[in-house]
């Protein structure tokens, strides 16, 4: 579904994608299945993987946004904007909590929750280390 939005030439929009008002999709861009874009600009040749939400954001050209990424734009009172620079990579299942700027040529590790700006050419990793608690599952009533 496309509402009050623009899709430039050679861009493709996957099935069940929803382009809400003020979505601007650049030339040769790819919007995957079940992607929602609202009040956002997607740059030329940028790929947005399936099951992703992009709201109130500006994405430069030639960016790869993995599956399940959420641009977290609402703090309960107001909407905030995110900027992602050209030639960047955002790994699957990441949360980008606005307002932040991710500079050109940056990479976000999969599963990260980004709350601060990311400088040019940086790799941002924002997730807790896995901790295994041996035998703990035996104490959980829903597993027994």
From TrEMBL:
Protein keywords: Acyltransferase, Cell shape, Cell wall biogenesis/degradation, Cytoplasm, Magnesium, Metal-binding, Nucleotidyltransferase, Peptidoglycan synthesis, Transferase
Protein's UniProt keywords contain Calcium: no
Enzyme Commission numbers on file: 2.7.7.23
GO molecular function, one term: acyltransferase activity
Gene3D superfamilies: Hexapeptide repeat proteins (2.160.10.10)
UniProt subcellular location: Cytoplasm
An annotated GO BP: cell wall organization
Cofactor: Mg(2+)
Annotated Pfam families: Hexapep (PF00132)
Predominant cellular place of this UniProt entry's protein: cytoplasm
UniProt-listed InterPro entries: GlmU-like, Hexapep, Hexapep_transf_CS, Trimer_LpxA-like_sf
One GO cellular component term noted in the UniProt record for this chain: cytoplasm
Chemical reaction(s) catalysed: N-acetyl-alpha-D-glucosamine 1-phosphate + UTP + H(+) = UDP-N-acetyl-alpha-D-glucosamine + diphosphate
Family the UniProt entry places it in: In the N-terminal section; belongs to the N-acetylglucosamine-1-phosphate uridyltransferase family. In the C-terminal section; belongs to the transferase hexapeptide repeat family.
Stated name of the protein: UDP-N-acetylglucosamine diphosphorylase
């Amino acid at each position: 579904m496309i509402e009050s939005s623009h899709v430039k030439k050679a861009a493709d929009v996957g099935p069940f994608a929803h382009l809400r008002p003020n979505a601007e999709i650049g030339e040769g861009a790819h919007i995957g299945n079940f992607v929602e874009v609202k009040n956002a600009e997607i740059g030329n040749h940028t790929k947005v993987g399936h099951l992703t939400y992009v709201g109130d954001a500006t994405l430069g050209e030639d960016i790869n946004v993995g599956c399940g990424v959420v641009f977290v734009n609402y703090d309960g009172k107001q909407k905030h904007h995110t900027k992602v620079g050209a030639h960047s990579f955002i790994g699957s299942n990441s949360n980008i909590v606005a307002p932040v700027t991710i500079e050109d040529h940056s990479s976000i590790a999969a599963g990260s929750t980004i709350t601060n700006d990311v400088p040019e050419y940086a790799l941002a990793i924002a997730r807790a280390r896995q901790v295994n608690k041996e035998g703990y599952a035996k104490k959980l009533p829903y597993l027994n």
